[in-house]
Amino acid sequence: MSALLAFLREYVVLFLIFTVALYVIPSEQYRGYLRFFLEMALVMFCLQRILQAGGKDPKQKWEAYYRSFYEEMEQRKTEAEEMEYLDMEYVYGFAEEGQTKDQP
Questions:
Q1: Is 87 left (phi over 0), alpha (psi -120 to 50) or beta?
Q2: 53: which of 26, 36, 44, 88 is 20 to 30 A away, CA to CA?
């Protein structure tokens, strides 16, 4: 409940600051651009809070994703090395067969 109140408090403060900024700009020409920018900033603020409500800190999520990606890449590297080793055994097997057939 306190998180919701904190969110509402931050939103209202940000909205009031943006409203004051709109009244400070004297030129009507730039007011439309500023209003668009400020509305996008409010939307991004809300989206950020909604996405953070999902659980972990974004930095922790990023570290977990990176760790899982790195582990998977290490696994793929190991698999590729094993495949290369198996391919070399296949080639060596043909080479040995060729040597035994060539010898009288």
A1: alpha
A2: 36
Claim to verify: residue 73 and residue 84 sit in the same structural domain:
yes
Task: Quote the domain boundaries for residue 38.
Answer: 1-55
- pLDDT tens for 41-52 read 888 888 888 777
Both tokens assigned to 79: 């698999």
- Residue 36's H or E segment, with its range, is helix 28-52
Q: Give the integer Cα–Cα distance in Å for 83 and 61.
A: 33
**Three-class DSSP category at 54:** coil
Do 16 and 4 share a structural domain? yes
C-beta separation of 15 from 42 below 8 A: yes
Give 3-32 pLDDT, tens digit per residue: 788 888 988 998 898 888 888 877 778 788
The continuous run of DSSP H or E covering 59 comes out as: helix 58-102
* 43 in the same domain as 1: yes
- How many whole angstroms separate alpha carbon 3 and alpha carbon 28? 38
